Amino acid sequence: MDDADIEERIEALANDIEGLKEDILKNRNKDKPFGKVVSENNTSNEIRQNAKVCRTLKGHFGKVYALEWSGDSENIISASQGGQLILWNAFTSNKLAAIMLKTSWVMSCAIEQEVGNLVACGGLDNMVSIYRIGNSGNEQAQDSQSELVSELMAHDGYISSCRFIGQKNLLSASGDSSVINWDLERGEIVNTFFDHLGDVMHIAMSPKDPNKFVTASIDRTAKIWDVRSGKCTQTLFGHEGDINSVSFFPDGNAFGTGSEDSTCILFDLRSHGEVKRFGGGSGPSVSGVDFSRSGRLLFAGSVDNQVYAYDVLGSSLPILTLSVGGHEKRITCLQTSPNGDGLCTGSWDSTLKIWA
Questions:
Q1: Strand partners, 114
Q2: What string of H, E and C letters represents the secondary structure of 168-229?
Q3: How buried is residue 123: exposed, middle or buried, by Cβ count under 10 Å (0-12/13-18/19+)?
Q4: β-strands 178-183, 169-174: how paired?
Q5: What whole-number distance in Å separates Cα of residue 84 and Cα of residue 61?
Q6: How far, in Å, are 119, 133, 142 from residue 145 at the CA level?
Q7: pLDDT per position as a tens digit, 241-274
Q8: Contact 223, 265 (CB under 8 A)
Q9: Radius of gyration of the chain from Cα atoms?
């Protein structure tokens, strides 16, 4: 084969490659028309017309610092600086239980997701307290049957976040830069997660893998952990300020963060990096984040008393600001209900609000 034939074959192969590239691009655009989704989908308009406060939960006497929905989306547990844990019925706004705590500086709370009869809290006492909620049979009355089950002491710093793993284990994050996995039946440490270089501010459990969770820290990193090994499996960078909140994307393959640098970042676990950034500039600090049930929207609570909704497939600017009938002071926490029907926010104004 002479040089001319070789050159002809190379040219033919190059043309074939270009043709294949064009076909791939056409099929990709056909299957995933990202450019058209935002303009053709009317989600943004529907949200602007319908989003409003449908419930205001009043009963705390101090700043609300933490909340969590129950697994059935019926109840909400909240903790305040007034030294109270309150279990609410999200539909009627009634208090199902009110627990007076030993310390008034409570910064975290959690409710067991399967049965919903256990709640946990912690704060500046460096201790995780576990309570069992009884059933008074009267939704109108505050439940006096709440029982202190255990007090878990091992952290050397304040308790910033806690989450149940089933009914037998609980994770607690602390200002001592660690996370502890507790065996609730024995009241003992299963393993301790050390890798952050600053206060761990928030924990989020994977919606698909009970052995995986993510943490946010003031060291400006988010880390993925394996419950079984106690090891960090991924460290994600990108923020220029403390990370206050973190939430998993509904499919478990990504997560969102909110930071003091006024931005939210969508990280993908498969690409080990940032895929989308929201907000920024001279905007307010982000204190809490969570996704809608579909994952299409990222909600961000901020220190300017408002909630911003970002379209994950859209621009970096918010498509909606939830403010009408909203909070009078900074928002400290928020979470979408497991069934996706509502968004609950907690604030320094001592109230919780449910948006739908």
A1: none
A2: CEEEEEECCCEEEEEECCCCEEEEEEECCCCCEEEEEECCCCCCEEEEEECCCCEEEEECCC
A3: buried
A4: antiparallel
A5: 8
A6: 13, 7, 9
A7: 999 999 999 999 999 999 999 999 999 999 999 9
A8: no
A9: 23
